[in-house]
Design goal:
Blueprint: H1 5-8, H2 67-83, H3 85-101, H4 104-141, H5 164-184, H6 188-196, H7 199-215, E1 217-218, E2 229-230, H8 231-234, E3 240-242, H9 253-262, E4 289-293, H10 300-312, E5 322-327, H11 328-332, E6 338-339, H12 341-348, H13 350-354, E7 365-370, E8 394-395, H14 396-405, E9 413-418, E10 433-437, H15 442-452, H16 456-468, H17 470-475, H18 479-495, H19 505-523, H20 536-555, E11 559-560, H21 562-567, H22 572-581, E12 586-590, E13 596-600, H23 603-621, H24 650-658, H25 666-680, H26 687-695, H27 699-704, H28 715-732, H29 736-748, H30 753-764, H31 773-784, E14 790-793, H32 804-809, H33 811-815, E15 817-821, H34 831-839, E16 848-850, H35 857-868, E17 877-879, H36 887-898, E18 906-908, H37 919-927, E19 935-937
Parallel strand pairs: 4-9, 4-10, 5-7, 7-9, 14-15, 15-16, 16-17, 17-18, 18-19
Antiparallel strand pairs: 1-2, 3-10, 6-8, 11-13, 12-13
Helix pairs in contact: 2-4, 5-6, 7-10, 15-16, 18-19, 20-23, 23-26, 25-26, 25-28, 26-29, 28-29, 29-31, 30-31, 34-35, 35-36, 36-37
Length: 944
C-alpha cells in the first residue's frame, strides 16, 4: 500500500521518511532506480502534481557499485527535462498549486534539494569539460602532434545551449588558467609553448605575415607600376617631437615647412617611432591616444607603416598582441553602412575572425587611424550617443567617436595621424599626447639622396645643387619632394649632359611633368624619347587632371571619390586610365571590394596642375578662372572662400585702386589679379599656387611646355609689369609672412633686385636714416632665408630710426635670433605682448633679450612675464635697465623666478624705482628651489 502524505512523516522503520521532496513530481523517472521492479504495463505519465506514485516510494536497498550509473542517469534525466519546453511551464503550474497547499519550510527544503541536484550536474559538466580540454592540451604539448588548439575544435562536442563564441571563450579562459598553473609549477618552457599554440598566438602570426607582405615594399608615389623598393632600405628616420595639445595651424603648409626648416636643435623631446606610446621620460601614466601632426607628404603614413612593419618583423613592441592599421580613405567608403567594432575589424582583417577571436578586452591592441584630414565622416563628439559594447552595430562615425573617446574598448591604444589644420576635429581631452613630424633635417636630406643614388659623384652633385637654391632646399624638408627632385635631376643629368639644372620650383615641376609624360609615351604609347611629349592623348589627360586639381583645390579636397570625379566631368574609368599611365602624378588606391579612391601624389603636384590649368585656360580662351570674368574685369575676385577675411571690403579695395593702374595688357592684369587674390587669403592657402602661376609666365618655362601651350606675346614685358606690381605690393603689405611669399614670387620670376640691393647696402656700412617697408621686407627675407639662426639682431645697425611697427614686421627675425638688442628703440609696454608670444614660441632661438631704455612700465613686464613662464621659453638673459619700473614689477618677476620652467640666469633691473617694497617679492623668488638666477643687477636701489 502506498503511503499517504499524512502517514509518511510518522511511519516507523529503520529510517524516518523525509519530508516530501516534490522532485519526483516532474516524472516517475526522476527518482533513481536501484532495483528494477517488474511491473506490468507502462509507467504512468508524469502528473507534476501527485506525490503518491510508486516512483516516490523510498528505496531501502542501496547498491554502492551503482552510484556512478545512478549519477549519470540522474544528470541525463535532469538535463533532458530542463531542455524540454514543457518543463518550465509544468513546473510553474506545479509550484502555483504547491504554494497553496504547502508550508514555507517545505518550499525552502525543495529549493535546497533542487539546487543540490543542479550543482551535481554542474560539477559533472565542469569535470567533463576540464578532461576534454586537458586531453587537447596534452596532444598539443606532444611533439608528435604539432597542431594548434583551435584546429581541434571542429570535432569537439558542444555543450547544451553553448554557441560558437561561448565555446571559444571558455576554451580560451581554460587555456589561460592552464598556462598560469604551469608557470606556478615552474614549467615556464611548457607554458610558453602552450601559449604559442593558442588562438591569439596563431592569429598574431597570421596577421604579422600579412602585414609584413603589405608594408615591406613602397612605391614612392607610384600607384600601380614601377619597381617596388624595400621600406627598410629606403626609410630615413624622421624628426618627431612631442608637441602640445589643442594647437591648430591653418597656414598654408609651405609656410609651416619654411618655419620648420629653420627649427632644429631647440631642446625638444625627440621621440623614436617605436616609442610613440611611451612619450617623454617625465610623463606619468599610460598613453592611450597619440595624435601625430605633419604637413602633406612629410611622411606620416610611411611612419605608421614602418611602425607596423617593425612589429610584424618582431623588431619592436612585441608586448602588443595586434596592430590594426586603418585609413580614413577606406573608412569613408563605409559611410552609409553599420558595423560593430568587432565586425569592422573582421571586415578589414580576416585573421581574428578565422581564429574565432571576438573580444579584445584582455589583449593589447593598437588601432592606427591614418589621415584624419581626409575624413568625410561626420565625427560629432558632442551629440553622439555613448556606445560601450564592441558587438553592438552602429554607423562608422559613431563607432569611431566612441572608440576615440574611450567609451569603446578603453584598453585599446590609438594612433591618429593628421595634417595640422584638421587636428581640432578631435577634442584635446581625448588625446593624451600630441607629436609632430617635421620631416628631414639637413643631414637626413643628404642621407636620403645618398641612399637613392648609388653613384657617389651623382649624389654629391645633386646635394650641392639643391643647397644652392634656397626654395628647393626648403622643400626637400618633405620626403615626397625629395623623391620628386631625385626623379627630375636623375633624368636631367642623363638627358642634358652639361646643361643647367632647374633652380626654381616651377622649373622643377615642369620637368617632373615632362619626365612623366615621356615615360607614358614610351611605355604605353610605343613612342621614343625623341618624339614630341604632348600627344593629343597626353594633352587631354593633363587638361582633365588640371581641371580636377583646380576645382577640388577650391573645396580643399586632396582625395577624390567617384562623385568628385563626376562633378568635374571625369568618368571613373578615365580616371583609372590616368592613374595607370601617369603613375607618379595621379594615384588610384583600391580598398576592399574594389572601392576606388584617387589623389595626386602630393598637394604641391595638385597645386602645380591647378595653376597650369588656370594658365592654359587663360592663354587658350582669355577666360580668367580666378575672376570667372574676362580679364578686363578682373578686379572683383573671390572665387575662393576666405572666411577669415569677412570684415574687409574686397570690392571697395579693388575699385579704389583701379584708377591708379596704368593701361596694361590682359596678360599683365591676369597675373596681377592672381597676386591680389593670394593676398586676400589670411592663411596663405594660395601661396604656392601663386608661385607656380607666376613662374609659368616666364618665356623659358613656356618653352619647356611648348606644344602643350602657346607662347604668350610680349611675355618679357608682362614679366616686367608683374615684377613691378609685386614690388609695389611689398611696399604696401604690412604682413611679414605675405611679404616673404611675395619675395618667393620674385624668385620664381628670376628677379632678385631687392635682395641684392639690401645686401649692397649692408656691405657699404652706411646707416640709413629710415628703412622703407620694402627694405625691411628684403632684410627680413634675406635673414630668414639663410636657414640658420642669427647670432645677433640689432635693428639700429641698419637704420637710425626704428619703431614698434617695424618691430612687429620683423618679429620673424626675432624668433630665429639668439640675441636681440632693442635698447633705445622707443618701445612701449604694449609691444611686450608680441615679444611674449616670441618667448613662448615652441621653437624660438632667443636666449638673450635687451629691452633697456624703453618706457615699458609695470604693465609691459606683466605681459612679458606670461611668455617667461611658458615651458617653451629658453631665455637666459633679460635686460630691463631704465624701463620705468616700480615695485609692482617685482611681484611678476618673482613668480617667473619661482616657476619650474624658468631658465633665466641673468636679470638686469638697474635704474628702476623698485624701492624697498620690491625687495621682499624678489627675495622670495630668489629663495625658490626652482630659481636658477646667477646674476641680479639692481644698483641705485639696494642689494639683496
Amino acid at each position: 500500500m502506498d503511503p499517504s502524505p499524512a502517514s509518511t512523516g510518522s511511519d516507523p522503520g529503520p529510517e524516518a521518511e523525509p519530508e516530501p521532496s516534490y522532485v519526483s513530481c516532474r516524472s516517475d523517472d526522476s527518482n533513481p532506480r536501484l532495483i528494477d521492479f517488474k511491473r506490468p504495463g507502462p509507467e504512468p505519465e508524469p502528473s507534476y502534481v501527485s506525490c503518491r506514485s510508486d516512483g516516490s516510494n523510498p528505496r531501502l536497498i542501496d547498491f554502492k557499485h551503482a552510484v556512478k550509473r545512478r549519477k549519470r542517469k540522474q544528470a541525463q534525466t535532469i538535463t533532458k527535462h530542463i531542455r524540454d519546453p514543457l518543463y518550465s511551464k509544468g513546473r510553474q503550474h506545479y509550484y502555483q498549486r504547491v504554494n497553496q497547499e504547502s508550508s514555507e519550510p517545505t518550499q525552502k527544503h525543495q529549493t535546497h534539494m533542487d539546487s543540490t541536484f543542479m550543482f551535481q550536474l554542474l560539477e559533472e559538466n565542469i569535470v567533463t569539460f576540464v578532461k576534454k580540454e586537458l586531453k587537447k592540451i596534452q596532444k598539443v604539448l606532444s611533439q608528435d602532434y604539432p597542431e594548434c588548439l583551435e584546429s581541434q575544435m571542429e570535432d569537439e562536442e558542444v555543450l547544451y545551449g553553448e554557441d560558437e563564441e561561448q565555446r571559444r571563450s571558455t576554451s580560451d579562459a581554460f587555456l589561460k588558467i592552464t598556462v598560469n598553473f604551469l608557470r606556478w609549477m615552474n614549467q615556464e618552457e611548457m607554458a610558453d609553448f602552450l601559449q604559442s599554440r593558442g588562438p591569439a598566438a596563431v592569429c598574431q602570426r597570421k596577421l604579422k605575415s600579412n602585414l609584413k607582405n603589405k608594408f615591406q615594399c613602397v612605391f614612392e608615389g607610384i600607384a600601380k607600376a614601377g619597381n617596388p623598393t624595400l621600406l627598410n632600405q629606403i626609410y630615413t628616420e624622421l624628426y618627431i617631437t612631442e608637441g602640445e595639445t589643442g594647437e591648430v595651424n591653418n597656414e598654408h603648409e609651405v609656410r609651416q615647412i619654411e618655419t620648420a626648416s629653420r627649427m632644429r636643435n631647440r631642446g625638444e623631446t625627440i621621440i623614436r617611432p617605436e616609442d610613440i606610446f611611451k612619450g617623454s621620460a617625465g610623463r606619468h601614466g599610460a598613453i592611450r591616444t597619440v595624435m601625430t601632426k605633419g604637413v602633406a607628404g612629410i611622411g606620416k603614413t610611411v611612419l605608421t607603416q614602418k611602425f607596423t612593419l617593425d612589429w610584424a618583423e618582431d623588431k619592436a613592441n612585441q608586448d602588443i598582441h595586434f596592430i590594426f592599421p586603418f585609413t580614413f580613405r577606406e573608412l569613408n567608403v563605409l559611410k552609409e553602412q553599420k558595423f560593430s567594432l568587432m565586425k569592422l575589424v573582421h571586415y578589414f582583417f580576416t585573421e581574428p575572425k578565422e581564429e574565432g577571436i571576438c573580444r579584445f578586452e584582455e589583449l593589447k591592441v593598437v588601432f592606427i587611424l591614418d589621415g584624419l584630414d581626409e575624413c568625410r565622416l561626420p565625427l560629432d563628439f558632442n551629440k553622439t550617443k555613448t556606445l560601450t559594447d564592441v558587438t553592438e552595430s552602429t554607423s562608422v562615425d559613431v563607432l569611431l567617436t566612441n572608440l576615440i573617446r574611450g567609451n569603446l574598448l578603453p584598453s585599446a591604444r590609438l594612433w591618429i595621424t593628421t595634417r595640422p589644420a584638421a587636428a581640432n576635429q578631435i577634442p584635446p581631452g581625448c588625446v593624451a599626447m600630441v607629436t609632430e613630424v617635421r620631416g628631414f633635417t639637413d643631414p637626413q636630406k643628404d642621407e636620403y639622396f645618398r641612399k637613392r643614388f648609388t653613384d657617389e659623384e651623382q649624389a654629391t652633385t645633386i646635394i650641392s645643387h639643391i643647397k644652392t637654391s634656397r626654395s628647393l632646399h626648403i622643400m626637400c624638408h618633405i620626403p615626397v619632394f625629395c623623391w620628386i627632385t631625385a626623379t627630375v635631376l636623375e633624368d636631367v643629368l642623363k638627358t642634358r649632359e652639361g646643361g643647367e639644372l632647374p633652380r626654381t620650383l616651377t622649373e622643377m615641376y615642369i620637368y617632373f611633368l615632362v619626365v612623366q609624360t615621356t615615360v607614358k609615351n614610351i611605355k604605353y604609347d610605343g613612342g621614343a624619347e625623341i618624339d614630341p611629349h604632348w600627344s593629343p592623348e597626353s594633352k587631354k589627360m593633363i587638361d582633365s587632371l588640371g581641371k580636377l586639381a583646380f576645382e577640388q583645390l577650391q573645396k580643399g579636397n586632396l582625395i577624390f571619390y567617384e562623385s568628385d570625379l563626376t562633378e568635374c566631368g571625369i568618368d571613373i574609368r578615365e580616371a583609372s586610365v590616368y592613374s595607370g599611365v601617369f603613375t607618379q602624378i595621379f594615384k588610384e588606391e583600391k580598398g576592399l571590394y574594389q572601392d576606388r579612391v584617387f589623389c595626386f601624389v602630393h598637394l604641391s603636384v595638385q597645386e602645380f596642375l591647378a595653376a597650369l590649368h588656370v594658365h592654359l585656360t587663360f592663354i587658350s580662351s582669355g577666360v580668367n578662372l580666378l575672376s570667372q570674368q574676362q580679364p578686363t574685369s578682373s578686379y572683383v575676385i573671390d572665387i575662393f572662400d576666405f572666411e577669415s577675411n569677412e570684415d574687409s571690403d574686397i570690392d571697395e579695395y579693388w575699385f579704389d585702386h583701379k584708377n591708379e593702374c596704368e593701361p596694361q595688357s590682359a596678360e599683365s592684369l591676369f597675373y596681377q589679379t592672381a597676386v591680389d587674390t593670394a593676398l586676400c587669403s589670411q592663411n596663405g592657402h594660395l601661396d604656392l599656387f601663386l608661385r607656380f602661376l607666376l613662374g609659368l609666365s616666364l618665356p623659358v618655362n613656356q618653352t619647356l611646355l611648348q606644344g602643350l601651350m602657346t607662347m604668350t606675346e610680349n611675355s618679357s614685358q608682362t614679366t616686367q609689369d608683374t615684377v613691378k606690381y609685386i614690388k609695389e605690393k611689398i611696399e604696401e603689405t604690412a604682413s611679414a609672412v605675405k611679404s616673404i611669399n611675395l619675395f618667393h614670387c620674385l624668385n620664381e620670376l628670376n628677379d632678385c633686385s631687392l635682395v641684392e640691393g639690401i645686401q649692397q647696402f649692408l656691405e657699404s656700412g652706411i646707416l640709413s636714416d629710415e628703412f622703407s617697408l620694402a627694405q625691411w621686407s628684403a632684410l627680413l627675407f634675406m635673414l630668414v632665408s639663410t636657414g640658420s639662426e642669427l647670432d645677433v639682431f640689432d635693428p639700429l645697425r641698419y637704420s637710425l630710426c626704428f619703431s614698434e611697427e617695424d618691430l612687429m614686421f620683423v618679429l620673424g627675425v626675432v624668433k630665429v635670433s639668439k640675441r636681440v638688442v632693442l635698447s633705445g628703440c622707443n618701445l612701449s609696454g604694449t609691444i611686450c605682448e608680441s615679444l611674449s608670444s616670441v618667448l613662448s614660441f615652441q621653437f624660438s632661438s632667443l636666449r638673450e633679450l635687451d629691452l633697456s631704455n624703453n618706457d615699458l612700465q609695470d604693465s609691459g613686464v606683466k605681459l612679458l612675464a606670461v611668455g617667461l613662464e611658458s615651458p617653451h621659453c629658453q631665455l637666459e638673459t633679460l635686460r630691463l635697465k631704465l624701463c620705468n619700473l616700480s615695485d609692482t614689477s617685482c611681484g611678476a618677476l618673482s613668480s617667473v623666478l619661482s616657476s619650474q620652467t624658468c631658465s633665466l640666469r641673468e636679470l638686469d633691473l638697474s635704474n628702476n624705482d623698485l624701492q624697498d617694497l620690491g625687495v621682499n617679492p624678489l627675495s622670495a623668488g630668489l629663495k625658490s628651489p626652482h630659481c636658477q638666477l646667477e646674476c641680479l643687477r639692481k644698483k641705485v636701489v639696494c642689494a639683496v
